[in-house]
Design goal:
about 140 residues, mainly alpha, 434 Repressor (Amino-terminal Domain), two-stranded antiparallel ribbon, 6 helices
Amino acid sequence: MPPSEKEGQGSRTPLSDYVRDYLARTMISKNQFVQACIDPEDRSRVIYIQWLDALLAGRGPTPELWRLRALAAGMRAEVEELKRLTAEQWLEYAVEETKVGDEAVLVAVPAGLSEEQRRRIKRMAEAMAREEAAIDT
């Protein structure tokens, strides 16, 4: 579940908030948490507490994909959700997801759009995906 939003506006640090909320909800220590944060694709890649502290403070560079996989493993979360939160935090884009058939279409939209503008962009993305699927068949 995504982090809570205050006063109808999205957080400026959604990934940091998500991890902070997880730690608070589970009452797991940071040391225990980082021990569980191992990249499942390359078990030699682990998250260190210094990096976690920077993330929790909303600082540091955009996390690499392996770090997101390690965080997801530690929280038993979906990597795609963490990617979406990362885009919101570091790129200041909201990521909308829609389905076209069995395929998910992810669209980055500028923050601050109205709900109607977001729906319009999603409809346009769906139409483009259906058109591309028709061309490929």
